[in-house]
Design brief:
heterodimer; A: mainly alpha; 13 helices; about 0% strand; globular; B: mainly alpha; ABC transporter involved in vitamin B12 uptake, BtuC; two-stranded antiparallel sheet; two-stranded antiparallel ribbon; about 75% helix
C-alpha cells in the first residue's frame, strides 16, 4: 500500500515536471519570436480544441451519450465572456477571468435546461435535443439585439499584444492542463466510476442504487461548463464572433476529435484534437474536401474500429517510463 | 380568413414532413436507429428530379419514377454499406448514430462538390391554378400535397397490415429475435424497410420541389430534423401518428412564421419536441414500450 502511494506521488511529480517543461519551452519560443504569430494562433486553437474535445469526451466517451450541440454551449460561453469584457469598466486582465467564469456558468445553466428533459429519456433523444438546442441557440443569437444579430460581435480585446504575445496561449495552456487533470481525477473518483457504470449498463447501474439521472446531469452540465469556458477563450482569441462560427459543422468537428481519438480516452482526445487542428492548417488546399474526408473517416472508424484509434487506453509518460525501466531491469537480471 | 389560409399552408407543408416522418418512423421501429441520412435522401431525390427534369428534359412522369427508384437504391446502398455490419453485430447504439451522422455529412458534402453550395432553381413541376373558395385563396399545391400524403399513408398502412412482408416488418419490430426463429429473414426485412422509407422520401422530395421550387445540398438538414420531431410527436413506430405529427408541426411552423416571427419557427418546433418529451415521451399515438432487461 505504501509503495503504491509513493508511486502515484512520483507519477504526479513526473507529469508536473513534464508539463512545466513543455510550457517553458513553448512560452520561450513564443516570446522570443522564434514561433511567429500565425503558429502561436494555431497552437492556441489546438489548446482550445483540446479543452472542447476533452469536455465532450466526458459525455460521449465516459457517459456514453451522443451530444450533437457542443458548439451551442461554446456559443453561449463566447458571447457571455465577450459581452462582459466589452461592457465592464474593469481592465481586461481582471475582466477576462471573471468573463470566463461567467461564460462557464451561462453554458452550465443552458446545460441544465436542456439536460432536464433529455436525460430522463433514452440516449437517442439526447442527440436530437442537443442538435436542436445548438440550432435554436444559433437562431436566437442571430435575432437578438444584444448579440448584434448575424453580424456578430467585433473588436473583442485579446490579452495578447506585441509586448506579450503569449498571454492568450498561457491562459489556454493552463485551462487545458487544469481540465485534463480534473478529468483524470474525476474518472478515477467515486463519481467517475458511477458515470462509467451508467455507460456500461444503465439498468444494472440503477439497480445498484446509483442515481442515474443525477450522474448523467452532473457529467452533462460539467461538460457544458467547460465548453463554455473554451468558448470564452475562443472569443477573446479570435476577436470576432458571429453565430455562423458555432454551427452544426463545428459540433461535428469536435465530435470527430473525440471519436477518432477514442471514446473514453482522454489522452486520445488530446492527441486527435491537436492533430485535427494543425493538419487542416497545413493542408489548406484541400479544405473543400475536409468534411467529406471527415465523414468517410467517421463511417470507416465505426465499421472497423468503433472504439476509436486509442480505444479506452490512456498514454502516460510515467507509465511508459516505468515499463521501460522494468524491461531494462529484467534484461539485466536475465544476463546475470 | 388569413388564419385559415395559414392553417391550410401549414397542412400542405406538413404533408411533406409527414412523408419524411413515415420513413424515420419505420426505420426506427425496426432497427431503433435515428437515420440522420434520411433527410439527405430527400435532397438526393430533389437533385435527381432536377437533373432528369431540367437538365435532360425528360417527361415529368419519368423524372418522378427515376427519382423514386434512385432514392430507393440509395437507401438500400446506405443500409448495406454503412449500417448492415453494425446491425448484424449488434453494435452499440452510439456507433450506429455516429455512422448515420457520417452518412448524412458525406451525402451533403458530396452533392456540394458536384452541384455547388448555392441553391438550384427548379420550375414548378405541376403548374395549376389557385383555387378560390369565397375569400380564401388556396394554392393547388397545398391540395396536391395533402392528397398525395394521404394516399401514401393509406398505401403504407395496407402494405404493413395486409401483405406478408408487412407482417414480417411488424414482427421484426416487435421482437427481432423471435421473428428470426419464426423463419423471417430479418436482414431482408430491414433492407426492404429502408427502401420503402427512401421511396417515400422521394415522393416527399418531388412535392418539396413543386412547392418551394428550389433545392440545395443542405436542405435535408432541417427538413429531416423537423420530420423527426413530427415522428416523435406522433409516436415513433406509428404510421397515422407520423402523419398527425407532420401536420401539427407543419401548422405550428406556418402559424409561427405568420404571426410571431419569420425566423423563430425552428425554435418553436424544437420547443414542441422538448415539451412533448418531458410530458409524454412515447408520443401522441405511441404505445407503451417497456424496456426489457
Amino acid at each position: 500500500m505504501n509503495i503504491l502511494k509513493k508511486k502515484t506521488g512520483v507519477y504526479y511529480l513526473i507529469n508536473a515536471v513534464l508539463v512545466a517543461a513543455l510550457f517553458l519551452v513553448l512560452i520561450i519560443v513564443i516570446n522570443t519570436g522564434t514561433l511567429n504569430g500565425y503558429y502561436t494562433d494555431i497552437l492556441t486553437f489546438a489548446l482550445i480544441n483540446i479543452v472542447l474535445a476533452v469536455s465532450l469526451n466526458l459525455v460521449t466517451g465516459i457517459l456514453g451519450q451522443l451530444v450533437l450541440g457542443h458548439a451551442g454551449f461554446m456559443l453561449v460561453g463566447a458571447y457571455a465572456a465577450a459581452l462582459f469584457t466589452k461592457n465592464s469598466e474593469l481592465s481586461l486582465t481582471v475582466a477576462f477571468p471573471i468573463g470566463l467564469v461567467l461564460s462557464g456558468l451561462f453554458a452550465a445553466i443552458c446545460g441544465v435546461v436542456i439536460g432536464l428533459p433529455a436525460l430522463r429519456l433514452r440516449g437517442d433523444y439526447l442527440a436530437i435535443i442537443t442538435l436542436g438546442f445548438g440550432e435554436i441557440i444559433r437562431v436566437i443569437a442571430n435575432n437578438l439585439k444584444i448579440t448584434n444579430g448575424a453580424m456578430g460581435l467585433r473588436g473583442i480585446d485579446s490579452l495578447s499584444n506585441r509586448n506579450n504575445p503569449g498571454a492568450m496561449f498561457t491562459y489556454a495552456f493552463f485551462i487545458a492542463v487544469v481540465v485534463i487533470f480534473l478529468m483524470f481525477t474525476f474518472v478515477r473518483s467515486r463519481h467517475g466510476r458511477a458515470v462509467i457504470s451508467i455507460r456500461e449498463d444503465e439498468i444494472a447501474a440503477e439497480s445498484m442504487g446509483i442515481n442515474t439521472t443525477y450522474y448523467k446531469m452532473f457529467a452533462f452540465v460539467l461538460a457544458a461548463f467547460i465548453a463554455g469556458i473554451a468558448g470564452g477563450v475562443y472569443a477573446h482569441h479570435v476577436g470576432v464572433i458571429d453565430p455562423a462560427k458555432f454551427d452544426f459543422n463545428r459540433s461535428v468537428e469536435i465530435l470527430i476529435m473525440v471519436v477518432l481519438g477514442g471514446m473514453g480516452s482522454i489522452t486520445g482526445s488530446v492527441i486527435s484534437a491537436s492533430v485535427l487542428t494543425i493538419l487542416p492548417e497545413l493542408l489548406r488546399d484541400f479544405s473543400q474536401y475536409r468534411m467529406l474526408i471527415y465523414s468517410v473517416i467517421l463511417i470507416c472508424l465505426m465499421l472497423f474500429k468503433p472504439s476509436g484509434l486509442l480505444g479506452r487506453y490512456e498514454i502516460s509518460v510515467p507509465g511508459l517510463l516505468h515499463a521501460l525501466i522494468k524491461k531494462i531491469k529484467n534484461k539485466k537480471s536475465g544476463e546475470v | 380568413m388569413e388564419f385559415i389560409e395559414q392553417v391550410l399552408n401549414g397542412l400542405g407543408q406538413g404533408s411533406i414532413f409527414a412523408l419524411v416522418a413515415l420513413g424515420y418512423s419505420m426505420v426506427y421501429g425496426i432497427v431503433q436507429l435515428i437515420n440522420f441520412a434520411h433527410g439527405d435522401i430527400i435532397m438526393v431525390g430533389g437533385y435527381t428530379a432536377f437533373v432528369t427534369f431540367i437538365t435532360f428534359g425528360m417527361p415529368l412522369w419519368l423524372a418522378v419514377i427515376i427519382s423514386i427508384l434512385v432514392c430507393a437504391a440509395v437507401g438500400l446502398i446506405i443500409e448495406r454499406v454503412a449500417y448492415h455490419r453494425l446491425i448484424v453485430h449488434n453494435a452499440a447504439r452510439i456507433s450506429l448514430l455516429i455512422t448515420a451522422l457520417g452518412v448524412s455529412i458525406f451525402l451533403q458534402n458530396l452533392f456540394m462538390l458536384i452541384f455547388g453550395a448555392e441553391p438550384k432553381h427548379i420550375s414548378t413541376l405541376f403548374p395549376m391554378e389557385t383555387i378560390k373558395l369565397g375569400n380564401t385563396e388556396l394554392s393547388s399545391n397545398t391540395i396536391l400535397n395533402i392528397v398525395v400524403s394521404v394516399i401514401m399513408m393509406i398505401g403504407l398502412q395496407l402494405l404493413v397490415n395486409k401483405t406478408k412482408i408487412g407482417k414480417a416488418m411488424q414482427a421484426s419490430s416487435e421482437d427481432a429475435g423471435a421473428a428470426k426463429l419464426m423463419g423471417i429473414n430479418t436482414n431482408q426485412v430491414v433492407a426492404f424497410t429502408f427502401m420503402v422509407g427512401s421511396a417515400l422520401a422521394a415522393v416527399g422530395a418531388i412535392l418539396y420541389c413543386n412547392t418551394y421550387s428550389q433545392i440545395k445540398p443542405t436542405m435535408g438538414n432541417f427538413l429531416g430534423l423537423k420530420a423527426f420531431v413530427a415522428a416523435v410527436l406522433g409516436g415513433i413506430g406509428s404510421i397515422p401518428g407520423a402523419m398527425l405529427g407532420g401536420y401539427i408541426i407543419g401548422i405550428a411552423d406556418s402559424l409561427t412564421k405568420a404571426y410571431v416571427s419569420s425566423t423563430l419557427n425552428d425554435a418553436v418546433v424544437f420547443g414542441i419536441l422538448i415539451l412533448m418529451l418531458s410530458v409524454k415521451p412515447t408520443g401522441i399515438m405511441g404505445g407503451d414500450r417497456r424496456e426489457k432487461v
